[in-house]
């Protein structure tokens, strides 16, 4: 039997900003793949809170201790970017059944575009299944406490950006 080659995976997303749910996925993904590239979409139609460069900086800070994890950004089709990195896996997290439909259609479209690239889904850790970047931004902008939902350095950046000094978590 042929030996399986070392797997390179892309973990794509908006990461506006990275949450502890994303971080949990990176942690677990870094053990499955020989190289894991966390890639931020550049041409996003959503109005982001942080620029791609700021998000790359935040990811770099938070992920610096993972030897096989890299941070990058991409434009255009995800599967073309994956191929340019010799990646054969797209890693995505699923929190609840509501994520499934969106992810299924994307996975099938990506497979149609490049059948040699496989989408791998990982279930969110149960402690993180309700966390989203959108909800974190909403809560902090309304003065709520988000400690434990995002890395501390990200929480500080959110406060700075949103001018919110309430409910600082330690
Ligand atoms: O964190 P998000 O916003 O859920 O990430 C969405 C992302 C970046 C994975 C998705 O928008 C994407 O893959 N965009 C690339 C464009 C693309 O390849 N589209 C066609 C295939 S579905």
Walk me through what this model shows.
The structure is a single chain. This protein is globular. The chain contains 6 helices and 5 strands. The chain has a single domain (8-129), classed as HUPs (Rossmann fold), CATH 3.40.50.620. The model has no long low-confidence stretch (mean pLDDT 93). It has a 5-stranded parallel β-sheet, sandwiched between helices. 40% of the residues lie in helices and 18% in strands. It is an alpha/beta fold and 170 residues long. Strand 2, helix 2 and strand 3 form a beta-alpha-beta unit. The structure holds 4'-phosphopantetheine. 4'-phosphopantetheine binds next to strand 1 and helix 4.
List the helices and strands and how they pair.
Elements: E1 8-13, H1 20-32, E2 35-41, H2 52-62, E3 69-74, H3 78-84, E4 89-94, H4 97-113, E5 118-123, H5 133-141, H6 152-162
Parallel strand pairs: 1-2, 1-4, 2-3, 4-5
4'-phosphopantetheine binds next to strand 1 and helix 4.
Question: Which CATH architecture?
Answer: 3-Layer(aba) Sandwich
Could you name the CATH homologous superfamily?
HUPs
Termini gap? 53 Å
Percent of residues in helices comes to 40-55%
Biggest β-sheet strands, sense, barrel: 5 strands, parallel
**Total count of helical runs of at least 4 residues:** 6
Radius of gyration equals 16 Å
Order of helices and strands: EHEHEHEHEHH
Assess the beta-strand content as a share of residues. 15-25%
CATH topology (level 3) name? Rossmann fold
CATH class: Alpha Beta
């Amino acid at each position: 039997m042929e030996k399986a080659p070392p797997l390179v995976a892309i973990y794509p997303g908006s990461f506006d900003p990275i949450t502890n749910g994303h971080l949990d996925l990176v942690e677990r993904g870094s053990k499955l793949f020989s190289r894991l590239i966390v890639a931020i979409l550049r041409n996003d139609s959503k109005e982001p809170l942080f620029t791609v460069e700021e998000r790359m900086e935040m990811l770099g800070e938070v992920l610096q201790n993972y030897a096989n994890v890299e941070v990058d950004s991409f434009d255009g089709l995800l599967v073309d970017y994956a191929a340019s990195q010799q990646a054969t896996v797209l890693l995505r997290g699923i929190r609840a059944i509501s994520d499934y439909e969106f992810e299924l259609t994307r996975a099938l479209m990506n497979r149609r575009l490049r059948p040699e690239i496989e989408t791998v889904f990982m279930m969110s850790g149960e402690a993180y299944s309700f966390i989203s970047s959108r909800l974190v931004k909403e809560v902090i902008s309304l003065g709520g406490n988000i400690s434990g939902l995002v890395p501390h350095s990200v929480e500080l950046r959110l406060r700075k950006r949103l001018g919110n000094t309430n409910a600082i978590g330690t």
